[in-house]
Amino acid sequence: MALQRPPKLKHFLWRACKGFLAVKERRLFYRHVVSEKSCSICSSLDETIIHSTFKCATAKEIWAASSFMAQINVAPARSFVERFMWILKNELVTKAALAWASWYCRNKHIFEQDGFNVVEVAKSWVDLAYESNAYAIKVINRTAPTVGPSPSSWSCPSAGTVKVNCDAYLGAKTGLGVVIKSEHGHLLGAAIREEYGGWNVEATRQLHVDLD
Fold it and tell me: In terms of Cα–Cα distance, which of 29, 61, 28, 27 is closest to 42?
């Protein structure tokens, strides 16, 4: 049976691996939103995604309270996706939830500046990650849908409707293609978008296997 993790956890991991989290070094400084790249919490030289989720004072307090600190100290640090691939060895969901909690506490500290116990927050987010599947089964009474292979031939949609087909690929570039056809099979529109990024096929496969 597939486990349903919170969609926000998956979204956080996707954004972190793609480099889309709004840290100073990666996004804000180069878009001229801020004039310097130092961490807003501990004044480290560069506020990177790795720093915000593992090395900042707030993040360190969370990881120090876990059983993973020794592993984190020797993990790769060049990019979040590299470290993410490294920590896939065991207990991925717990580690992902702690990174997620570190990012949440970082934002709460910067934008709300309230006093709160970061370790207790992290524990609650780990619990949320593990309880989400049980909640979905009990309240929604469903499990994650099984995704089968794509059909080998195209069929027309019902009368008065259109059909939208899409596909994606991952590699050195990430691409998404969309085709829209009428009930008679006439082409109504098509589009494609490509991006360069740090997301790779193995990370995507592991994210699907371990979090779904």
Answer: 61
